[in-house]
Model the fold of this input.
Amino acid sequence: MSESAALRLRRLALPDTLDDLSGLVQADLNAIVDMLTERATEQLLLTHRQRTSLRGELWNRLVDSLNDAVAPLNVESR
Done:
């Protein structure tokens, strides 16, 4: 995977019914990713490239999980 591909972060896509929470959820996800990335960098002595890759992977997996979990709450899918 190229470095530019690792930087493509997925978008949080909350249903319209949860739209008012998107800023808060995004900030919380960002804090979680930052803390996990920082801890991994300290303990594993990651290079800048590894750190960037880990951060992107964590973000994308968390966003995918959250998007999948809340998708059934979308009014249009009922």
